[in-house]
User: What shape does this take?
Amino acid sequence: MLLLTCPHCGVTAEETEFAPGGEAHLKRFGPGSDDDAFEAYMFNRKNPMGVHFERWRHAYGCGKWFIAARCTVTLEVFGTYPAQTTEPPAGIVETIKAKRPEWEGYK
Amino acid sequence: MAEAASVLDGARYTGFVTVADAGLRGMITLRGDLASDAVAGAVKDAVGLGVPGQRRVHAHGDRAVAWMSPDELLVMVPYADASEVAGKLAQALAGAFATVANVSDARAVFTLSGAAADDALCKLCPVDFAQLGAGEIRRTRAAQVAVALWRSGEGEVTLVCFRSVAEYVFGLLRNAAAPGGELR
Assistant: This one.
């Protein structure tokens, strides 16, 4: 079971109270970008075995979007933060580096 | 004009917990910047209560204000006063970046009373009820639909859901409270 804490309302609940929103921190390539960049933005996702950043919505609670940094293997959650964040906060990056020294960064 | 009635019209079920339709309740959704003086002043004038902090419910008599999300409050008043209070709030917040809507007829309210109310609810909601203190509102799901619940008194939990799913929720609660389903 995946337990997430919503950073907007502080509730910790299991995943069924939330709705998943796919990979976080995507850079959008829209009209005017070249085809390869658009294809990569549109279709290519990381699907890693290990550290992953995901968008979630507290669908049955406060309704707000947030981002969860978690491990896809162990379901360990390193932290959550509001979706209005363009890159992972330093504190969360530090936590992940301490727990997963082999992690290569979120990019 | 037809008389307003709650969808289950006062239905009641007694199992190891008593589940009752709490009837009509005036409910007003207020969205805006909860930290602003405009919202605090409007709520104070309309219902005489302060803006609650994260996940808190302020209640006094038949009036209450609940924190629903970082930008949303639920103002509860007697059903008959709802449109008047909503008008008052809207007027007070006319110049502010806020919206007020009277949602009384979009909601259904249930009360669960009995010492084992938590045991009935924990079959339906992914909530650790031991952690749910008095004066705290918890928005969650009951089986497949969204609900909000809080402790409204000694051994009593009030649960709010959408009117369109009221019969479903009453069915859920009745089933969860059926004799023989006690957890201890």
The first strand of chain B starts at residue 12 and ends at 14.
